[in-house]
Amino acid sequence: MSRPTETPMDALLAILDLEKLEVNLFRGLSPQVGWQRVFGGQVIGQALVAAQRTVDASRYVHSLHAYFLRPGDPTVPIIYEVDRIRDGSSFATRRVVAIQHGKAIFSMSASFQFDEGGFDHQFDIPDVPMPEALPGEKELREKFLVHAPEAIRRYWERPRPIEIRPTSLEHYFSRDKAAPRQDVWVKAVGQVPDERHLQAAVLAYLSDMTLLDTSLYAHGTSVFDRTLQVASLDHAMWFHRPSKMDDWLLYTQDSPSAHGARGMTRGSLFDRSGVLIASVAQEGLIRKKAVE
Predict the structure, then answer these.
(1) Which of 158, 160, 157 is nearest to 190 (CA)?
(2) Which domain holds residue 43?
(3) Residue 264 resides in a domain
């Protein structure tokens, strides 16, 4: 039985709170919102939670590398099996396999580290409009989505735990080819507890949002194009610095290449003050469907 929630973030936090079945074995559920397959960010976030629960609490994730093997079925639970690869003096390594219907749908390796001092540098945050200067999702629905294609309207009208404010909306309404890059502000809808392991899981969840679209801008299309088959293939993430997830984050993305029915996108997540908190890389399937 689903429990009542106050915000979409409450629902996400409930989904990330995995049930422990046995040592190294956990079960996660999916939201029943009519999706045909499980959102990739959910599986990344849940797998990270499973791995974190087998690691010393004073170690924090610094990187993860994942592969999406099969589409997830949102109507049945996902079983997460954790392999404790190594616990070293500085780093701990875990491998997680997500299983449904007796088959692996996802695999991930993650590495954890105690906090250490050392060299410190980062790229600068891009010069883009601040989120307050951009239309919110309510304004988007009321002013800009009235004549938008149905698939785009459904996407923006669905309640989500993460609000998105793109710095440009041109690609949503134009079929013109554009530079394969975008900047979007993202923010938790509701409060994320002040706990670093959970904050990292929420960050991992949102890191899978909007990436595939960036690789399609150069071709004048988007993930809403029904003639395309699009899906995340792999996902890598590096956690540079902690973030409390209580304010807007800038997700700046670019796609250096598309070839062989695959598009590759890189992303950087900055907090409002310009601190680089994470880097992301993903390759996705972007294939024209066969015409019968």
Answers:
(1) 160
(2) 8-115+131-288
(3) yes
How do residues 50-106 score in pLDDT, each as one tens digit? 999 999 999 999 999 999 999 999 999 999 999 999 999 999 999 999 999 999 999
CATH code assigned at 48: 2.40.160.210
Domain membership of residue 188 (yes or no) is yes
Residue 56: predicted pLDDT: 96
| Active-site pick, 30, 215, 232, 243 | 232
Among residues 183, 208, 213, 225, the one annotated as catalytic is 208
282 is catalytic: yes
> In the annotation, is 174 catalytic?
no
* Secondary structure of 163-192 in HEC code, one letter for each residue: EEEECCCHHHHCCCCCCCEEEEEEEECCCC
The number of distinct structural domains making up the chain is: 1
Residue 120 domain-assigned (yes or no): no
